[in-house]
């Protein structure tokens, strides 16, 4: 790793209520890299992020930002960080520009030129004079990123920033993070529960499950970790029949809680299946000849589960 170490986390522990939520977590993030913090729902990502941003005190362990210990040099450490935990707070009846100006006035030392530069960087120049209430979710998200980077933080921390964004918004955010890492040398720490997203965005990914850091992978390692098997998402007219056909072909369906019809509030039949890419044509034609209409099929990448297996079997941690 070429750049300087911007964030150092060592032996971090946190218990909330009676539950040990974050267990002896250690990792480092370097200048100019996009570092992914990947884990399923409830893994402890937000809890870890809150400790790094100083919203929660660790029970034990050490956090250093730009070499400053969060416990003993809190303000100096915080001056190096920008972050968004959930939805960024904005004044909805003010324009995006006024929001940024107010933040700049509060923070101090931020020039009008810097504001213009950041507005361009996040691609909001055409709409920056509109009221925030007229912004789409993606625009609000980009304004939030703009606000958190105005003071040129060395470290930018974003907790699941793509939640609620459409594919176009996700792509724009990804390009923005890349530009920040490349042009400003920012160390970008971004959390997600979606492997496919991390594969496309990050230089390096650290995997957390049940509060435990399972290991780290570079982008290259991540792409090859699960072999040639991929997950596919089928949207079909008759899920029960489709499931039967897939199972008859010896394929394994991937359960996905958030994808059942009820949770989506409508009767859309979505199935996830894990298989080798080479079988796609065979599977599609079996579905069609079995009387199932395929509305869409999308490759969603490796499954998280597969990745965990690659990490925990075959010689333990990949780090
Ligand atoms: N204040 C709290 N008291 C007790 N348990 C908590 C508290 N806050 C979070 N937890 C629990 O800690 C665990 C980790 O939560 P956390 O929000 O850090 O997970 P996460 O990885 O961010 O998940 P998600 O992907 O859903 O955002 C969860 O089981 C959660 O229920
Ligand atoms: Mg979370």
Question: Helices and strands in order, then pairings?
Answer:
Blueprint: E1 5-16, E2 19-30, E3 34-38, H1 45-52, E4 60-65, E5 68-69, H2 74-78, E6 81-84, H3 96-107, H4 112-121, H5 137-149, E7 155-158, H6 167-184, E8 187-192, H7 195-201, E9 204-209, E10 212-218, H8 219-224, E11 229-236, H9 239-248, E12 252-253, H10 261-264, E13 269-276, H11 280-289, E14 294-301, H12 304-312
Bound molecules: adenosine-5'-triphosphate (ATP) and magnesium ion.
The site of magnesium ion has 4 residues, from α1.
Kindly list the characteristics that best describe this protein.
Rossmann fold; 319 residues; binds adenosine-5'-triphosphate; binds magnesium ion; 4-stranded antiparallel β-sheet; Alpha-Beta Plaits; 6-stranded mixed β-sheet; 12 helices; disordered C terminus; alpha/beta
In short:
Helix content is 35%, strand content 28%. The chain has helices spanning 45-52, 74-78, 96-107, 112-121, 137-149, 167-184, 195-201, 219-224, 239-248, 261-264, 280-289, 304-312; strands at 5-16, 19-30, 34-38, 60-65, 68-69, 81-84, 155-158, 187-192, 204-209, 212-218, 229-236, 252-253, 269-276, 294-301. The protein has a six-stranded mixed β-sheet with strand order 6-7-8-3-9-10, sandwiched between helices. Strands 2-1-4-5 form a four-stranded antiparallel β-sheet. It has a four-stranded antiparallel β-sheet with strand order 12-13-11-14.
């Amino acid at each position: 790793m070429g750049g300087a170490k911007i964030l150092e986390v060592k032996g971090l522990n946190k218990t909330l209520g009676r539950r040990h939520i974050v267990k002896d977590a250690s990792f480092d993030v370097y200048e100019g890299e996009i570092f992914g913090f990947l884990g399923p729902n409830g893994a402890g990502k937000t809890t870890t992020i809150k400790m790094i941003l100083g919203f929660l005190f660790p029970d034990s362990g050490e956090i250093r930002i730009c070499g400053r210990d969060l416990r003993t040099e809190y303000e100096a450490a915080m001056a190096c960080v920008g972050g968004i935990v959930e939805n960024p707070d904005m004044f909805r009846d003010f324009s995006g520009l006024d929001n940024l100006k107010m933040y700049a006035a509060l923070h101090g030392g931020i020039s009008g030129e810097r504001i213009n530069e950041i507005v361009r960087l996040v691609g909001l120049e055409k709409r920056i004079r509109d009221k925030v209430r007229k912004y789409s979710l993606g625009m609000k998200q980009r304004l939030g990123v703009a606000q958190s980077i105005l003071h040129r933080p060395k470290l930018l921390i974003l907790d699941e920033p793509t939640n609620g964004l459409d594919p176009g918004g996700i792509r724009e955010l990804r390009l923005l993070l890349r530009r920040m890492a490349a042009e400003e040398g920012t160390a970008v720490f971004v959390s997600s529960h979606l492997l496919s997203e991390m594969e496309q965005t990050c230089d390096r990914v650290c995997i957390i499950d049940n509060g435990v850091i399972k290991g780290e992978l570079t982008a290259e390692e991540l792409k090859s970790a699960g072999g040639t098997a991929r997950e596919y998402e089928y949207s079909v007219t008759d899920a029960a029949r489709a499931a039967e056909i897939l199972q008859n072909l010896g394929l394994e369906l991937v359960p996905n809680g958030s994808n059942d019809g009820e949770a989506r509030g409508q009767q859309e039949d979505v199935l996830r299946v894990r298989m080798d890419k080479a079988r796609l044509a065979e599977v599609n034609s079996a579905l069609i000849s079995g009387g199932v209409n395929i509305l869409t099929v999308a490759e969603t990448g490796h499954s998280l589960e597969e990745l965990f297996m690659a990490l925990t079997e075959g010689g333990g941690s990949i780090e």
